[in-house]
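Page 37, continued from 36.
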């Protein structure tokens, strides 16, 4: 396997960003290998497999609107990439704005797909409904 490059990681992240913002579940799932492991938080059980990741993204896509995603690559070494990321969306259920700030550690297989993803993030919710009691 050839080592991951900054350009290769950026290309993957751009597809991830676009899939997130557009709610493109198919494009998101294609970023992952068949048996990929997706850890939403350090202590959560992983979502395992491309189909399960697709379902996970589907649930999120239906709960969010006006999604924005940005990133800054921090490091690339071997088959690993690390990025600082920020997200913003409106919760469909509450109408509140949600801000996310976190780090992704992404491990790639030989075909350039993610085989393991670890997320660490924090969330801030801003209630945008002035009519709530």
């Amino acid at each position: 396997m050839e080592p991951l490059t900054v350009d290769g990681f950026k290309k993957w992240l751009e597809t991830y960003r676009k899939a997130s913002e557009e709610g493109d579940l198919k494009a998101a799932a294609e970023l992952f290998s068949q048996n990929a492991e997706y850890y939403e938080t350090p202590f959560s059980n992983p979502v395992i497999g491309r189909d399960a990741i697709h379902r996970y993204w589907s649930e999120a896509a239906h709960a969010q609107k006006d999604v924005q995603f940005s990133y800054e690559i921090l490091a690339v070494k071997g088959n690993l990439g690390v990025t600082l990321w920020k997200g913003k969306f409106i919760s469909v259920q509450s109408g509140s704005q949600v801000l996310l700030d976190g780090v992704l550690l992404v491990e790639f297989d030989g075909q350039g797909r993610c085989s393991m993803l670890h997320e660490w993030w924090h969330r801030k919710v801003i209630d945008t409904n002035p009519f709530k009691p």
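The beta strands are 32-39, 47-48, 64-77, 80-91, 97-108, 114-126. Flag for discussion at group meeting. The first strand starts at residue 32 and ends at 39.
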